[in-house]
Amino acid sequence: MINKEHLWFLTLFSLILVLSVYYITMPNDLLLSKEVFNNDEDSSQDKVNLEIEESDVLVSLRLDLNEQRQNEMKDLQKVLTNTESSTDEKNDAYEKINYINSVYGVEEKLEKKIKECCNIDSFVEVDNNEINVVGLSNNHSVNLANKIMRAIQEEYKEKVYVTVNFK
C-alpha cells in the first residue's frame, strides 16, 4: 500500500526526472542564443539579450505553411492508397497533390521576383487566385506595396487578389 509520503516522493522524483531529461535533450542552440551580461559591475540586475533576426519571421511562416501542406498531402495520400476510395475521389486527390506541388514552385518564383525588383526578403502564400505577401522592410510605403503588387500581377494573365503586409 502506498501512503501519502511515498506518493509525494514518487511524484517529485518523476517531475525531476522528466525535467532533467528535457534539459539534457534540449538543443545547444537555445542555450547559446541567449547572452547574459551586466551593464555595471556594481549593478545586481542581469539583462538578457535575445537576438531575433528578421528572417526568423519568414522562416516561421514558411514552416507553418509547409507543415499545414504536409498534413494535407498525408490525408490526400491516404485517399489514394485506400482501396475503398472511388476513382473520382482518387482523381481529385491526385489533382490536389499536383496543385500543391505546383504552388511550391510558383511561390518560390514570386519570392525571387520580389527580391530582384524590390530588393526585400519576402514570404509568399498562394491560395487559388489570392496571393498573400509578407515583406521584411523598414520602409512601409504604399509605393513599395504597389510595386510588389504590379510585379506579381505581371506573372498572371487574369486578375489576382494580392495582399501585401510588412514586418
What's this, in brief?
This protein is of the alpha+beta class and 167 residues long.
The appropriate CATH architecture of the domain at 55-166 is Orthogonal Bundle
Number of strands: 5
The CATH top-level class label of the domain at 55-166: Mainly Alpha
Question: How is the main sheet built?
Answer: 3 strands, mixed
Nearest-angstrom radius of gyration?
A: 25 Å
List the secondary-structure elements in sequence, H or E.
HHEEHHEEHE
Q: Tell me the CATH superfamily of the domain at 55-166.
A: Stage III sporulation protein AH-like
Distance between the termini: 60 Å
| Strand line-up of the largest beta sheet | 3-4-5
User: Helix fraction?
Assistant: 55-70%
Structural class by SSE content: alpha+beta
Strand percent estimate: 15-25%
CATH structural fold name of the domain at 55-166? Helix Hairpins
Mean pLDDT across the residues is 79
Overall shape: it is: flat
What's the layout of helices and strands?
Layout: H1 4-25, H2 28-32, E1 34-37, E2 47-50, H3 54-81, H4 87-118, E3 121-127, E4 130-136, H5 142-153, E5 161-166
Parallel strand pairs: 4-5
Antiparallel strand pairs: 1-2, 3-4
Helix pairs in contact: 3-4, 4-5
Structure write-up:
The protein has helices spanning 4-25, 28-32, 54-81, 87-118, 142-153; strands spanning 34-37, 47-50, 121-127, 130-136, 161-166. The chain is of the alpha+beta class. The protein has a 3-stranded mixed sheet, with helices on both faces. Strand 3 and strand 4 form a beta hairpin. Helix 3 runs antiparallel to helix 4 and helix 4 (87-118) crosses helix 5. The longest helix has 32 residues, at 87-118.
